[in-house]
Amino acid sequence: MKSQTMQPPEFAYYPSESEVDEWLDSVWDMGVNTKCRAEVMTREGHTAQPDINHMHGFSYIKFSPQGMDSFYGYWQPAINGPGPLLVHTPGYGGEMSMHPDLAAWGFNVLHISPLGYSTPQGYDESKKRGMDAWPVLRDTVESGGRKGYRHWLAECVMAISWAQTHERVFADRVSFFGSSQGGGASLLLGSLFRDRGARCVAADLPFLTNFLLAKHRAGAYAMVNAGLEQLNDPRQGWRAVGFIDTLSHARRLTLPVLLTAGGNDETCTPESIESLFELLPATRSYTFLHNSVHGYTEQFIPLALGWFRLYA
Prior knowledge:
The protein is α/β, with parallel strands linked by helices and 312 residues long. The chain has one domain (10-311): Rossmann fold. The protein is 30% helix and 21% strand. The chain has helices at residues 17-33, 100-104, 136-142, 149-163, 181-192, 222-228, 234-244, 270-277, 300-311, and strands spanning 36-40, 59-65, 71-76, 83-88, 108-113, 118-119, 122-123, 169-179, 198-204, 257-262, 284-289. The strands form 2 sheets. Strands 1-2-3-5-4-8-9-10-11 form a 9-stranded mixed sheet, sandwiched between helices. A hairpin with a 2-residue loop joins strand 6 (118-119) and strand 7 (122-123). The longest helix is centred in the N-terminal third of the chain and has 17 residues, at 17-33. The two termini are 28 Å apart.
């Protein structure tokens, strides 16, 4: 990445390849070494759960890591299991998503909502901080990468480790998907699990991609600049951003990767996503959706299903 021409000067503050590897190792160590109790939740007390929750073992899972706040997942085992594991992560809004259609195709699907932002009863608004937004990105910048997404991804490791012990799951076949933040996070998880059973990634309009190209834009990327303004040394903030910029992980994504971009997306622009696509070293697919704006795209799940049937 650092050999590219016409780089913004802030790229000089990004961590080196070895530093990114070490940061991922620290995420992994936190995820596998933190004791985390998993509890399959019953129907009682779920004011917002849909009826599909009660089909074929679909249920909320409460994860309680030692020394950390509880967080939740939604488990959808393969209807015709056993089968591979698909891991879905939320957009920056923290919403929980369910995919019974993928379970019907023989995939186990685990949606993870890290940091306890979303619960079976709805959002935990007490976890918001400033600007009426979830603080994971700001916490990443302000902590120099020691908190925020480092904890967010470690909690994904905890939840995935639980799912891999399930009798319906092929533990050595895990793939990742999501939209916006979930798309960016699926790429980071693909990097993290590269030599740990990862099969493929499908990322819809991925956030966390080429921060420097988007640094003057509004929306979620603007929180980076807001956080940097509060630092005594903005260089440390850009270093933290470099740990979670998917461009820093492109060299590690040696598995099939599917990307989508929306022609009218002013948050995660096609230019940022194309800059990642150009760096991917292995099997890759890029779909440009001409009139799509930012959000969950209608075409993504059918595209992802085809990708999973080929590679997961």
